Amino acid sequence: MGKRVRTEFSDEQLKILHGEYLLNTNPVREELERIADLAGLTRRVTQVWFQNSRALQRK
Questions:
Q1: Which residues form the Homeobox domain (predicted)?
Q2: Which pTM value belongs to this model?
Q3: Is residue 10 assigned to a domain?
């Protein structure tokens, strides 16, 4: 098994993710799907981005 390729976010995707994060740091599944569609990402990548952002905020 090879290493998974790390997702590189475009500036536009990060702008969408940060904007949504300011509105809600813990979106439910339906919201994650909407945000993922908006940013052109998978729901899982979006979910992990939110998890990582919350973890960073706690530090």
A1: 1-59
A2: 0.91
A3: no
- Is residue 41 a part of any domain in this protein? yes
Does residue 2 form part of some domain?
no
Distance CA 39, CA 55 (A): 21
Residue with tokens 């919350």: 54
| Rounded Cα distance, 13 and 36, in Å | 9
Per-residue pLDDT at 13? 98
Domain residues for the domain of 30 are: 25-59
Kindly report, residue by residue over 2-36, the tens digit of the pLDDT: 788 899 999 999 999 999 999 999 999 999 999 99
Domain count, the chain: 1
Q: Strand, coil or helix: what is 59?
A: coil
Task: State the Cα–Cα distance between residues 42 and 36, nearest whole angstrom.
Answer: 6
| 2: phi then psi, degrees, rounded to nearest 5 | -85, 170
